[in-house]
Specification:
heterodimer, A: 343 residues, alpha/beta, Rossmann fold, 7-stranded mixed sheet, 3-stranded antiparallel sheet, 10 strands, B: 284 residues, 5-stranded parallel sheet, 13 helices, 47% helix, 14% strand
Chain lengths: 343, 284
C-alpha cells in the first residue's frame, strides 16, 4: 500500500506539485488515520498546497484510484484583485528628435547614440517598508531604548528616542521579448535593460522568445555594445517565435517562485503577440501577480495611438497588469522611469 | 481526542457548523497529527468560523492573531510594558522600593505584556490559535511565524524559554492576496474551502437564520448560487446568504425573487459594479 501511495505522491511531483518525501510521509500517516474511504481527502490535506493545484490532484488521483468522491464542485480560482490598470499615452513634447524617435525607425548609429543617453536614465522604485523598526529621528517613541538610556542618568529619561519602519530596496526584474515580432525594438530594449541594471546588483534581466535566458550576467559591464553582443550570443532564440505563457512559467518555476519575483517590480517588455495558449498565459500572470509587488507591461505597439490590446495573449495578460505603458522611444522610457518611481 | 472523521463532523454540526467531508477530514488529521491547518478559499466561505467553532468543540480558549501589513513580533508575541518599567525605575531611584527588589526586576514577568502567540504557547493544548489572514502580513513575519510553529517555543532573553507542553491547535487562514511560502505550506495541512452546494447552503441558512422558512432559505440559496455564476468581483459567501435570508424573513418575504429581494439585494452583493451586473442579469 505504502508503495502505491508513494508512487502517487511522486506522480504528483512530476505534475509540478510540491510533494517531497516529507509530504508523502505525512500523506501515508494521514491515509492510515482516516481509512480508505477518505483517501482522497487525506491526500488533499497533505499533498495539495493551493487551490489551483486541485484539478491536477484530481486528475492524478483518478488515474491511480479511479473516481474522486462526489463533493462540492471545484470552481476555477480567480486571481487576486489587482490595482486598476492605468493607461497613459506619450505626451508629445518638441524636445530632441532622437528622444522622441521610435526605436523601430532608428538606425544602428542612432541606437548607439541612444545607448549613451540611456545611461543617464536611472530607475528608482519605491523601497519596501519592512515590518522591522529601526532607530530614526522621527516616528513613534522607542520606549525600549529610552528606558535603557535612562539607566545612564539614574533612571531619569532625559531623551525620548524614536524609531520607524525600516526601508529595504525592492528588486526589479525585466523580462524582455526578443522574438521576431519585437525585432524592431528588442535591441533598444536590451540596451535599456543594460542601463537599468547598472548600479543595482540584485536586479535581474531575462530574455525570452520560445525559451527563457537569464542575461543579467551578459549585461554586466559598462560597455553597452559589448553587453548587447554577449546577450545576443547567449540568447539562442533571438528573432524566433513567442511563447510568453511558457516562458513566464519557466521564469516562475525556476526563479520567480524561489524568491526573485517575490515583492519585486516585474517589467515585461513585449508586444503580446503570442503563439502559445492564452489560457496558460493568464494563469501564469495570475501566479506572477500574487508574487510580485507590481507588474508593468511595456508594449511598444502602443506608439500607435490607435493600438488596442486585442491580441489574444495581450488580452489574457492585461487584467493582471498594474501599469501598461509603451516604451517605444527614449522619451517613452523616461516616462516609464517616472511611473516606476511613483508605483 | 476524536477517533474518526465522523466524530469531527458530528461535533462541528452540534456547534452549528456544517462542514463538507474534506474539511472534516482535514480538521481530524490536523488534530491527530498535531499540525497547523491552513485554510484558503474565497471570502465568506467560513474560514475564520472554523477556528472559532473548533475552540468551542475542544472547550479551549480561542486566541486570535489578526494579521495586517507590518505586524511584527512585538505585536504578535510579547512586548515589555515600558511605561510601567519607567515608573518603576523612578520609584527605585526615589527609594520607594525595598532593597531586595533590584533593577533586574525591571524585566520580571509582571512587566511582560503577553500577545496572542505567547498566550497560545502558555495555554498549550488549552487554546486554539487562530492566525487570521496571514497573507496580509509580510514575508518576514511569515518566516518568524514558521519558526514559532516549528517547535512551539520562544526565547525571551530576559526571562528564558517558554514552550508549550502540548502544542495548541492552530488554524491559519489566507485570502490568497499573496502566495504563502512553500516552507510554511509544507508545515501545514491544507484545505481549500469551496462554496457549499445547494443542499448544504439551504441547511446552513436554516441553521443560522432560524427565522427563515424552508422555501425562503431554498430560494435564497438558489439565487446566491446563480449570483456566483456571474463572475462577480466579490461573489456572495455563506455569510451573505445568511444575512440576506435574515433580512428577507424580517420583511416577511417568501422568496428572494420578488420585490423584497430586489430591495435587499445589497445584503448579498456589496460592490457597485456587481450590483449593476446582477440587476441586468436578474432582469431577464
Amino acid at each position: 500500500m505504502i508503495e502505491t501511495l508513494t508512487r502517487f505522491g511522486r506522480a504528483l511531483r512530476d505534475e509540478g506539485l510540491d510533494s517531497g518525501p516529507g509530504r508523502i510521509a505525512d500523506f501515508c500517516r494521514a491515509a492510515a488515520l482516516v481509512g480508505p474511504a477518505d483517501l482522497y481527502w487525506a491526500g488533499r490535506a497533505t499533498l495539495v498546497g493551493g487551490g489551483e493545484e486541485i484539478p491536477v490532484y484530481d486528475e492524478v488521483f483518478r488515474r491511480f484510484f479511479g473516481a474522486t468522491p462526489k463533493g462540492e464542485q471545484h470552481r476555477p480560482i480567480r486571481g487576486p484583485v489587482v490595482v486598476e490598470t492605468e493607461r497613459r499615452r506619450g505626451l508629445a513634447s518638441p524636445v530632441e528628435l532622437l528622444r522622441e524617435k521610435s526605436f523601430s525607425r532608428c538606425s544602428r548609429e542612432e541606437l548607439a547614440a541612444l545607448a549613451k543617453l540611456m545611461n543617464g536614465l536611472t530607475l528608482t522604485i519605491p523601497a519596501r517598508r519592512t515590518r522591522r523598526l529601526e532607530r530614526a529621528r522621527g516616528g513613534r517613541p522607542d520606549l525600549r531604548r529610552t528606558l535603557r538610556r535612562s539607566f545612564r542618568t539614574g533612571g531619569e529619561p532625559l531623551e525620548l528616542l524614536r524609531r520607524s519602519r525600516r526601508r529595504r530596496p525592492r528588486r526589479l526584474v525585466l523580462l524582455l521579448d526578443v522574438s521576431g515580432s519585437m525585432d524592431a525594438y528588442s535591441r533598444a530594449l536590451v540596451l535599456f535593460a543594460h542601463a537599468a541594471l547598472r548600479g543595482h546588483p540584485r536586479w535581474d534581466a531575462f530574455c525570452f522568445g520560445t525559451r527563457l535566458t537569464r542575461v543579467t550576467r551578459a549585461l554586466a559591464g559598462s560597455d553597452p555594445d559589448e553587453a548587447l553582443r554577449r546577450a545576443a550570443a547567449d540568447v539562442v532564440d533571438w528573432d524566433g517565435g513567442t511563447r510568453i505563457g511558457e516562458s513566464l512559467k519557466r521564469f516562475l518555476d525556476d526563479h520567480g517562485h524561489g524568491g526573485l519575483a517575490r515583492g519585486a517590480v516585474v517589467v515585461i517588455c513585449s508586444d503580446g503577440l503570442d503563439v502559445g495558449d492564452p489560457e496558460l498565459l493568464a494563469e501564469q500572470m495570475a501566479r506572477l501577480a500574487r508574487l510580485a509587488y507590481r507588474i508593468v507591461w511595456l508594449n511598444p505597439l502602443q506608439e500607435d495611438p490607435a493600438y488596442e490590446p486585442l491580441a489574444r495573449g495581450m488580452h489574457a495578460a492585461l487584467p493582471h497588469v498594474d501599469l501598461f505603458l509603451s516604451g517605444h522611444s527614449l522619451a517613452s522610457l523616461e516616462e516609464v522611469a517616472d511611473a516606476l518611481a511613483r508605483l | 481526542m476524536f477517533r474518526s472523521v465522523e466524530e469531527v463532523e458530528e461535533a462541528l454540526r452540534r456547534e452549528s457548523y456544517l462542514p463538507d467531508r474534506g474539511l472534516a477530514t482535514a480538521i481530524f488529521l490536523a488534530l491527530r497529527m498535531g499540525r497547523p491547518l491552513l485554510l484558503e478559499g474565497e471570502a465568506g466561505v467560513g474560514k475564520t468560523e472554523v477556528g472559532k467553532t473548533l475552540s468551542r468543540i475542544l472547550g479551549a480558549e480561542l486566541v486570535r492573531l489578526q494579521c495586517y501589513e507590518g505586524i511584527d513580533a512585538s505585536q504578535a508575541l510579547y512586548e515589555w510594558d515600558y511605561a510601567r518599567q519607567l515608573l518603576y525605575a523612578r520609584a527605585l531611584q526615589a527609594g520607594e522600593v525595598g532593597v531586595a527588589e533590584r533593577v533586574s526586576e525591571l524585566y520580571g514577568p509582571e512587566f511582560l505584556l503577553e500577545r496572542p502567540l505567547l498566550r497560545a504557547l502558555r495555554a498549550g493544548a488549552g487554546a486554539v490559535l487562530l492566525i487570521d489572514e496571514l497573507d496580509r502580513a509580510d514575508d518576514e513575519f511569515e518566516a518568524f511565524l514558521l519558526e514559532v510553529l516549528a517547535d512551539f517555543q520562544v526565547t525571551i532573553p530576559e526571562i528564558g524559554t517558554i514552550s508549550a507542553a502540548e502544542p495548541p491547535a492552530v488554524v491559519i487562514t489566507s485570502n490568497r492576496t499573496r502566495e504563502l511560502h512553500d516552507a510554511l505550506k509544507r508545515r501545514c495541512l491544507y484545505h481549500w474551502i469551496e462554496f457549499p452546494d445547494l443542499e448544504r447552503e439551504v441547511a446552513i441558512i436554516r441553521l443560522r437564520a432560524p427565522g427563515a422558512s424552508e422555501p425562503l432559505a431554498r430560494s435564497v440559496a438558489e439565487t446566491i448560487a446563480r449570483l456566483r455564476e456571474l463572475d462577480l468581483v466579490k461573489p456572495p459567501g455563506a455569510a451573505e446568504a445568511i444575512d440576506w435570508a435574515q433580512a428577507l424573513s424580517h420583511l416577511g418575504a417568501e422568496s428572494a425573487d420578488g420585490q423584497a429581494g430586489r430591495e435587499t439585494l445589497g445584503w448579498a452583493v456589496k460592490n457597485r459594479e456587481d450590483l449593476r451586473r446582477v440587476e441586468a442579469a436578474l432582469g431577464d
